[in-house]
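Researcher: Batch entry, complex prediction.
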Amino acid sequence: MIEPVSRVEGHGKVTLLLDADNRVHQVRLHIVEFRGFEKFIQGRPYWEVPVLVQRLCGICPVSHHLAASKALDLIVGAKQLTPTAEKLRRLMHLGQILQSHALHFFHLASPDLLFGFDAEVAQRNVVHVAAVAPEVARKGVLLRKYGQEIIRHTAGKRVHGTGSVPGGVNKNLTRAERVALLGEIDAIVEWSREAVGIVRGLFEKHARLYESFGRFESNRLGLVRADGALDLYHGGLRATDAQGKTLFDHADYQHYYELIHEEVKPWSYMKFPFIVEQGTEAGWYRVGPLARVAQCDFIPTGLAEAERRAFLGFDNGAALSAPLGYHWARMIEMLHAAEGIKELLLDNDLSGGDLIVRGERQLRGVGVIEAPRGTLIHHYRVNEDDQIVSANLIVSTTHNNQAMNTAVREVARQYLDGRTLTEGLLNHIEVAIRAFDPCLSCATHALGKMPLELELVDAGGAVIDRLVRG
Amino acid sequence: MSKTFTLDGKVIPFEEGETIMEAATAAGVYIPHLCHHPEFKPHGSCKLCTVSIGGRLGAACTNRAEEGMKVESETEALNADRRSLVQMLFVEGNHVCPSCEKSGNCQLQAVGYHLGMLTPHFPHFYPARDVDASHPDMLLERNRCILCELCVRASRDVDGKNVFGIGGRGIRARLIVNAATGRLADTDFSVTDRAAEVCPTGAIIRKRYGFTVPIGKRLYDRHSIAELPPLPAKRGEGRGEG
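Model: Structure tokens for the complex:
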């Protein structure tokens, strides 16, 4: 029996359920989710929503800002944005990808990867990274800062800006702003490339561990461009199975609800999305960097594409189903974001003056974006008086719900020894959860101090061991 | 020859019949206020402009200037009281600056910044208030109303319509509109009315316009409220204000 105490914000709780033979047969990962927003935005004027819903998160607010804007573009009848507006939004989004991926890799994940999963908790933090590998830490900090600067120039503030509005954007970039940002971009691209090299090197050095850690096969979901390219801002939905077979492709996300349903389980407040055609048992999937890099046909920037090929080719594709492959794919995406930012900054459309378009008012709209952590769906209905009537938000971490549970189950099976919870097991479970970069991680992992509670429950439902790290 | 009084030791000239607020504004001296607007009859309700007049407290917007009077405004005690008043306005309504489109253009927010308000201090009331979105062009967001009655005065004195009024008493006082249904859509309110643009907060807003001015270009991004005339320059000249 699981008490809903896990709703305490900033705490993770994992329950390991044993079968009669003391084997882990199910894992239940509890994460605070944000569904309250769907209720309290009802009645709000629609143009307020992109600014309001980004308060869902302090790490990737731009994702919510843009997903909501894309849904509301349709509601204000803006079927096609001006080139200036579309490119500014893309730039803002790539700034977001860059800063979020840099934050996750350097600040949150690198201590595990550089010092080992069993290292002292006191050492597994970015401060220790700065002491041991000051150049790595410095570049991580500067990469994130640069991404935030891109956001500030496009959205008005580093966090929780207002740049994107229904039908377009509210500001362009001056030539002077572009020149200033271009001044640093070559270093940003180079450091991103080095970051990919760090993860690739880890895979090469510890191939057996990195390939097998929490490994599982699953379906994948994400947006792709019409020509199959990786596109984090817009595209059609593509789903593939573990073998790479297409389940659906270039699907119009306006009708996502015909393809994806959400299952409710009695022990969790977070829903379990699944591909309708596959059913609840087989239809779960993973989203985010690993799914995107694995199932796109190519990455439309040269350096990242070369890294993608190396990633796919590593040990006959062994990294594709490895949870730690998320780190590798994430850094490839960061490199893509850096290259994409450079391309956009050179584009004079960014300084254009045509910012907002409007057309025939509609009553519903769906906006989907590939947020740093995966596919993000915003769906709104609006009444004739311009008020939000209903909203459905499916956030990236929710898509990854079953995938994270499965990864933790695999790790528990690998590292649980008997009927006792150990610090080592807790560490390994943490590493597995963190690979997915769930919102839980962003909210609470600062300096490696994620409060995590681990419970071991036997076949009869009795809690036989409990371990808490505050 | 013009008469004078002193405001925080500074000599302020005035014409006969002017209020302390009018004379101070003409001399370029800011006295914090919310319900005052130079175009409209003084109301004296928000009490933010309370000054010490020869040791006695009074509203600068309603007290006439007199020869030789000694007025104090920028004292620690008066600004502390003003800060408390603004904090009370914040907690009595539902003022959510982070998602409010009036942010950066809002006098309540700007005066809060000016007075160094860092927290709401008092417990929030979280009152249940209605949003009236029935009008095709304008939205009535009662959560943000501070009952300054500028819209009441503008509609009555300039637009000649009497669209707005205050109903209820005390803590239950609320902005109401002049229609049997209680809906803004059923009044003769128009987006071109003077009353459509005088709200110092985000209680009466133009629909589908929010957030189109970027951060950095909003009114109080560029100037503190103390550096600016009381309200943005009025539109629609020649509509017979008076």
